[in-house]
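ok new one. same drill as before - C-alpha cells go in, u give me an amino acid for every spot. 384 of them this time. try not to just spam alanines like last time pls lmao
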C-alpha cells in the first residue's frame, strides 16, 4: 500500500503548528541561529522532545571478538559505540548530553563539508550544541520496548539524536548504533592498535558496489550483535539511508525484529541485485518512508519489488523535503541557512524547502505512530 502526504497540508496542519510552537520554544526562543559561540562561531540548537518523560542517556562500548573489522583488519575485533536513551527521573542536576563529544566535534568540523558539501567549512561551533537527554539521569523503573537506530552511510549515530530522544520521551528505550569505518567520526573511550581514539570514515564520494555491499552486510551484522549482547527480543528498528537498507534486511534475517522503518534506504545493491527482503517480501510490518526530493528510479524499482509481495508493507512520502530531513539536519540546516552559512540551494538539496516547524513534527509523528501500533509502549518486551 502506498500513501503520500504533505507536511503543512490541511490533513496534517491541525495541531501541528501549535505543537511546533511548543517544540521550538526552548530552542529558537532561547537563542537564534545567529547566536555566537567561540571565536564568533554560530551556535546551533536541537528541537526539544514532545513526550511526557525526561530522557537519560548512557554510552556503551561493545566489542565483538568473533568478527574482525571489515574496514581496518589491524584492529582485530569489531567495535561499536552505542547510545542508550530511555525515560528517566526528571531533574536539572544532570547535565545535558553534548550532540558531539569534543573529539568527534573537532573531526567533524573538518569532515562536515566533505561528507556533505553543502555544509559550511567554517563558522559553526559544532562542539557547543546540546541534546535534550541528560547524562547520569536514573532511568524510570520498569522494562520498556526497545527500538534500534542505524544512521545513514557517512553519518554518525549522533545525527539522529532529535528523533531518538523524542521517541524515548514517549516511553521507548532507543539504542542508537554507530557503524565505525563508514560513520563520519566515532569517538572511543581510548586508543587501540589499528585505530585512533576518534575513528573517521573510510568512505569516499561515489563508493563502488563492493563497498556498498560490505557496508550493508556489516551493518546487519552489527545490529544482530547488539541484539545478542543486550539480550533483546521483539524490538523495533529504524534507520536512515544505508541504515534504512540495513534495518529492512535485518528484519528479513532476524525474527527478533518485530517491525522496522526504512527512512529512504535502497533495497538493492549498487549493481542492481535486489536484496533478499525485496525479492522475498516480509511477514512483519515495514514502513518505507521517503521524500520527493530524493526519489529516483533505483529507489522506486527496489521499493516496488517489495511492495509487489503480499505483506504488511506501507510506503509514505513527504513533499517539499529531501533526504536528510529524517535526521538532525532537518532543524540544523535551516539555522545555517538563516545565519548566511549555507545557500538556499544547499538547504533545498539536503532537507528541502518545507519549514522545519512542520517537517520535524511530521517525521516524529510518522515514526512514533508506526511503532505505537507495532511495538507499543506498555507491552512487556521479551528477553532472548
Amino acid at each position: 500500500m502506498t500513501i503520500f502526504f504533505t507536511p503543512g497540508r490541511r490533513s496534517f496542519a491541525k495541531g501541528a503548528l501549535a505543537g511546533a510552537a511548543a517544540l521550538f520554544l526552548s530552542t529558537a526562543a532561547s537563542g537564534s541561529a545567529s547566536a555566537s559561540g567561540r571565536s564568533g562561531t554560530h551556535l546551533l540548537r536541537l528541537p526539544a522532545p514532545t513526550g511526557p518523560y525526561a530522557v537519560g542517556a548512557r554510552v556503551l562500548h561493545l566489542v565483538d571478538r568473533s568478527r574482525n573489522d571489515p574496514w581496518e583488519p589491524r584492529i582485530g575485533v569489531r567495535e561499536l559505540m552505542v547510545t542508550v536513551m530511555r525515560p528517566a527521573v526528571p531533574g536539572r542536576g544532570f547535565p545535558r548530553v553534548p550532540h558531539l563529544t569534543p573529539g568527534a566535534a573537532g573531526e567533524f568540523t573538518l569532515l562536515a563539508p566533505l561528507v556533505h558539501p553543502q555544509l559550511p567549512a567554517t563558522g559553526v561551533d559544532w562542539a557547543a550544541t546540546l541534546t535534550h537527554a541528560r547524562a547520569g539521569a536514573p532511568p524510570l523503573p520498569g522494562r520498556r520496548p526497545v527500538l534500534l537506530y542505524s544512521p545513514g552511510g557517512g553519518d554518525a549515530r549522533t545525527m539522529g539524536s532529535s528523533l531518538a530522544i523524542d521517541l524515548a520521551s514517549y516511553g521507548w528505550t532507543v539504542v542508537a548504533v554507530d557503524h565505525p569505518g563508514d560513520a563520519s567520526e566515532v569517538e572511543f573511550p581510548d586508543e587501540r592498535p589499528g585505530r585512533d581514539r576518534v575513528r573517521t570514515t573510510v568512505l569516499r564520494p561515489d563508493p563502488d558496489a563492493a563497498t556498498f555491499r560490505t557496508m550493508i552486510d556489516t551493518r546487519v551484522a552489527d545490529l544482530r550483535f547488539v541484539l545478542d549482547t543486550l539480550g533483546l527480543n521483539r524490538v523495533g528498528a529504524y534507520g536512515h539511508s544505508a541504515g534504512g537498507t540495513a534495518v529492512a534486511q535485518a528484519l528479513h534475517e532476524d525474527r527478533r525484529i518485530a517491525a522496522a522503518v526504512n527512512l529512504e534506504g535502497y533495497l538493492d545493491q549498487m549493481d542492481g541485485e535486489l536484496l533478499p527482503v525485496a525479492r522475498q517480501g516480509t511477514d512483519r510490518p515495514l514502513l518505507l518512508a521517503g521524500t520527493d526530493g530524493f526519489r529516483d528510479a533505483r529507489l522506486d524499482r527496489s521499493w516496488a519489488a517489495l511492495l509487489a509481495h503480499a505483506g504488511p508493507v506501507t510506503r509514505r512520502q513527504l513533499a517539499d523535503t529531501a533526504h536528510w530531513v529524517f535526521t538532525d539536519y532537518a532543524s540544523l540546516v535551516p539555522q545555517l541557512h538563516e545565519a548566511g552559512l549555507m545557500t538556499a540551494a544547499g538547504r533545498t538539496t539536503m532537507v528541502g524547502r518545507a519549514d522545519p516547524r512542520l517537517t520535524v513534527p511530521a517525521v516524529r509523528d510518522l515514526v512514533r505512530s508506526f511503532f505505537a501500533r507495532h511495538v507499543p509502549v506498555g507491552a512487556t518486551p521479551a528477553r532472548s
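The radius of gyration is 19 Å. and btw The first helix runs from residue 10 to 23.
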